[in-house]
Amino acid sequence: MDTKSLTLLVEILDAGNLSEAARRLKMTRANVSYHLAQLERSVGMQLVRRTTRRVEPTEIGLKLYRHGRSIQDELAAARESVETLGKTPQGKVRLSVPSGYGLFVMAPWLLEFKQAYPDIVLDVLFENSVDDLLRDEVDIAVRIMSEPPQNLVARELGQVRYVACASRAYATARGLPQRPEDLARSPIVSAAVIGRPLRLSAYYSGQPRQHVVLEPTVISRNYAFLRDAIRAGLGVGILPDYVVHEDLARGDLLAALTQWRLSIFGRGMYMLYMPNRHHPRAISMIIEFILERAQADHEGKPGLMPAAGQARVS
């Protein structure tokens, strides 16, 4: 066994299947399969289990993967130390950020970071569909969720406050909902999860949590569009406070159910990235930069809530 064999194993497991590993290694799938078989023969044990969609490590395969990953990380760190000596920070960072939080909150942070480090390339995806960082080759993902996945490092950026709101014209014509169950009979403007009911949880002064199933009449992952739909009087919006805070402050929109704490997709905002990996300097820098900006904004700006507790690292 040599470092080349361990690198092959790491690439296969990182890629998730032989075809993707072959693409990344610029080899044929048959060649990757052959070298994997040779490695397993030299070890005398099966290292990878193949399913219809993915490859998964056996117990010994996972141990060797960790050794191989550690070697790769050390080599990458040494290489970067030499290459960046005396140079301004360089590299590429690929981020996946929520369409709403990314646009309304994070965009100024990312622009400030780019201005400070012009030689770092930022590739920013404003969407919520990335769920496999390795497969989609994403370095950092920011997500709203109740609990972060156990297989990733999770750094809490803050909490999300949801608000129910409507335009003055809508409130005059139809009135504002007085209780959470009124939302079930109201035209709702909100993001939604395709193929699943939209469930709202409402909390009030120690009372049992209420659940309401919503049926939005305007659905989008574009939060600027949702805000415009609420302004146009098309229904009651259920959106994060940071999307409509300025409209509420100006009185253009009116808040409802202000005594209730509302939640749809979870309330925690987490930055996620792969554990146990060497992060190039550019990625490490933007991770710390985002954490600093999140702490400052969530503790100092209206419409944002600070983190509930200390960051959890898987």
TrEMBL record:
Transmembrane segments: none
Pfam families from the UniProt entry: HTH_1, LysR_substrate
One GO process term, biological-process aspect: DNA-templated transcription
Superkingdom, taxonomy of origin: Bacteria
Keyword Nucleotide-binding part of the UniProt annotation: no
Keywords: DNA-binding, Transcription, Transcription regulation
Keyword Transcription found: yes
Entry-linked CDD domains: PBP2_CrgA_like
One GO MF term: sequence-specific DNA binding
Domain HTH lysR-type as annotated: residue spans: 1-58
Family classification: Belongs to the LysR transcriptional regulatory family.
Identification of the protein by name: HTH-type transcriptional regulator DmlR
Source organism per UniProt: Achromobacter veterisilvae
